[in-house]
């Protein structure tokens, strides 16, 4: 995105934050007019299906939106926890993530909502809440739209509405810095900058005596502490005894957080100094600790997801590249794991494979073609297949021609051809193949989803959905096992 | 000199003649007449006399006769001496007048001047005293004031002074004698003023105290109302204490200690009670409120722990979790928190053992081997770390709560799962793939819990079972003991389990349980055990050596044929390195008076009350046994074997046996 777009977008979002209802229309238009679609953005059909998934009618004004704005539009309309959470994560992510969300993410999330499984909710909430705290400490009442911005946009918004010069400088530095700097700014930088700004103001006030300055500093500290638990303290809360204020913080803090546990510990000491220390610094370090705990837990959960993904990829027998990518990510850092889950698993490097026959007469020849599927020797662009979740059943597979995007390997009258979708369920079933162990004992055999019992077979270099009944010439039992066994390799 | 002499004469004359003036008149005339000097004053003398008095003589005056000239000067003169002397002169003769003009006026004027100077000095002193007094009294010392007489000045002081004591003293002085008035002006006013000042200071001090007290009270009220989150505005802090109490009672959470205490304090008619509430009572009540909330939280935490404990007990396969929860509940707030935060996740591992209902087959654990999941014992001499393959993390069922999944601790994300191999349902440790199917296949439910027998683990319609070939599989109901994780299957462990597991309930301590880990010394292994009735105290030590059986040596006097401890003697004699491991259990001697144990090294320890516990070794032992052992005339050993020159010796109740190293012969010496 260009700088100009960015600016327009954020001001749009900010405007929305103020004018609540106007937001839906303004924001997408601002961006839609300027940003071109990324390559391989979601198709109209993807968008229609995505909208259908959550019971939204995909009106023309929705369908012309860019992927990002389409995600935003669905986020506004969605009610499911996981759908909304995953939309937030995609929206704050890259274009590829938004496209992927429209293509598959929303469906998975909706399935999780139906099954009452929570996965993205925690991550989305953690991101939202960190921003909420940061906005509150900056004296900005956070709107829902502000909270789902990515970290950089958020830093920009904080720069725009900075409550003091040091905070403004810190926001600018974060905006110009990397992802880590932005995260750091939201988690701690904005708090320390705000504290410094407030201290400057106190120091600059020559009229006040020491006691007044101290009182004011304590008051500021309370406001900052309350921001951690997303509370704007009342005047009464600012003057009440420390023990009561800590009790308020404790009650506002979420169960299971260190912020809450530390508050309880401070309360149990019944020691004024401990209570003061909690308000001044303890709550902030506890908050940071909570963040790290959350990061660690997310890392563990991510690794588990990746482990399961790899297991599925292994069991599918058609995803050696995905397995290799997952293994590489698992050997890396938590960030690598996270990136692979968000992006890597959808990239061509993970999905594109070649499919080679193991049939004695055509051993090592590639499944290929532009109209009819054939088996032929030698490399070529048409030998590359993007293996995506089955159009009719996500636990099976569909094979998209890399040379001919949006064209899929389907059986049509038992003949395997390469065709574009006609939008029918029949096409989706015909373009879906389920994998099982190779009948010859090695490799993989692909069963047609629409013609169960018939397996993808090379027969005289033609490719069919065949059985061994002998009903048709290609159904001959002769060499059937070898003809239906394929080797999936890296393209 | 001359002038003085003249003056003296004139004075004498004047005084001498002053009383009878008429008589004196004639004499000077005669003197004058008799004198050679001109009888009248010259013009220059008149001029000097006039000037002496500061008078510019007119021409007419200069023409006057001496007497008239004196009178003219007298009229204008002010000095008292001058006038008096002039009066004397003009009442006297012409000569006296002439003399007065010539010199008398001069000396009289000098006297006047001297007098004037004296008067001026006194006046200055008086003026300055008044100035000082005025300043002291806080009155502006303007010229009119300070030249007033003492009395008038004092009057002014009474009117214009600000200090009450100064005014009072002035009033007293006003009516007093002149000396007292002077004294007042000189000192009294100062004293009075100092008293005024002291009064002011005292008064001021009193005022400051009051102000301070007021401010302190306001601050206290301000602090007190903040307890109920009311901002201490000036209006509120200036309220009387009882109104502040009402403010607090209104602002307090209904039912809170603060509210109750405020209402209670209000009922009191004693102001001090109100103040005490504002000063301290409100905070004490507040702390009670906080403590109540914390107590509630602690109770809620305990309830959580109790729920976990309950679920763990009812669930049947998480005895460690149940026990940890019990321990936490027995502990304080911190133990409860620690359990919730951390510990509950650390006690999830258990092992599953084939139960021993049908014989001594304990020690066979559900474990993952290279050969799949089997139910087999581990090695008699396990390698370090063995037992992890027979340990499982018991977690909530992947297919939902209420049942469980068993995760491999060695391979995270791998679970004990069922699969269909095309012929029948098998059991294996498989990686999770996140699908619903896998979750279901990896979920096990506990249907039956029989103390002593164990639990059943149902997966789907069938039960986890041990198949005839020792592999785990699915079949009819099969009971498992849930045991401690990281199990070993050493002979000592199996011996122990076979003996004590038949009463096994994983949720209560066994009758006998290990006290510390098993010790390894080459081929010898031993382990201490404790009884449930005396935890932490070794009850016996089991020994095992490769190729042998397990034999315990008990602590204390033993159950049957009670006698001194054999284990202590064994250890005193350096234990298994010296004597070898026990090869028999402790047995009663033939007369049932004591016990004995034989050791692998060819020795024995005999224990009886009257002789103690002693080892008999080698050839001496052989000789002794050949005579009938404890039944022989020698009786029980009364010492361990000791070295003697050229051999070794054991003493017995009735004699001794000496062993000659050179000949290899053991000789009996009965007691004579």
Structure report:
The complex is a heterodimer of chains A (491) and B (672). Chain A is an alpha+beta fold and 491 residues long. Chain A has a domain at 347-490: Trefoil (Acidic Fibroblast Growth Factor, subunit A) (Trefoil), CATH 2.80.10.50. Chain A is built from 22 helices and 12 strands. Chain A has helices at 3-18, 23-32, 44-53, 60-63, 67-77, 81-91, 95-114, 120-137, 144-147, 151-160, 165-176, 179-204, 210-228, 235-239, 242-252, 258-269, 272-316, 320-331, 334-342, 348-351, 425-430, 480-483; strands spanning 352-357, 366-368, 374-376, 384-389, 397-401, 407-412, 415-420, 433-437, 444-448, 455-459, 462-466, 486-490. In chain A, a hairpin with a 5-residue loop joins β2 and β3 (374-376). Chain B is an alpha+beta fold. Chain B folds into 4 domains: 2-203, no CATH class; 291-341, no CATH class; 348-483, Trefoil (Acidic Fibroblast Growth Factor, subunit A) (Trefoil); 491-670, no CATH class. Chain B contains 22 helices and 25 strands. The radius of gyration of chain B is 66 Å and the shape is elongated. Chains A and B meet through α14, α15, α16 and α17 of A and α15 and α17 of B. Chain A: Keywords: Signal.
Q: Kindly state the percentage of residues in helix of chain B.
A: 40-55%
Low-confidence stretches of chain B: 1-35
Low-confidence stretches of chain A: 1-38
CATH class of the domain at 347-490 in chain A equals Mainly Beta
CATH topology of the domain at 347-490 in chain A: Trefoil (Acidic Fibroblast Growth Factor, subunit A)
Helix/strand-derived category of chain A reads alpha+beta
Distance between the termini of chain A: 32 Å
Beta strands of chain A, count = 12
Report how far apart the termini of chain B are: 162 Å
Question: Which strands sit side by side, in order, in the main sheet of chain A?
Answer: 5-4-1-12
CATH architecture of the domain at 347-490 in chain A: Trefoil
Into which percent range does the helicity of residues of chain A fall?
55-70%
Number of helices of chain A: 22
Measured by DSSP, the beta-strand proportion of chain A falls in 5-15%
Number of helices of chain B: 22
The greatest interface between two protein chains, and residues involved on each side, is:
A-B, 24 and 26 residues
Total strand segments of chain B:
25
Organism (chain A): Amycolatopsis melonis
Protein name (chain A): AbfB domain-containing protein
Signal peptide (chain A): 1-22
InterPro entries (chain A): AbfB_ABD, AbfB_ABD_sf, DUF312_ALF, TAT_signal
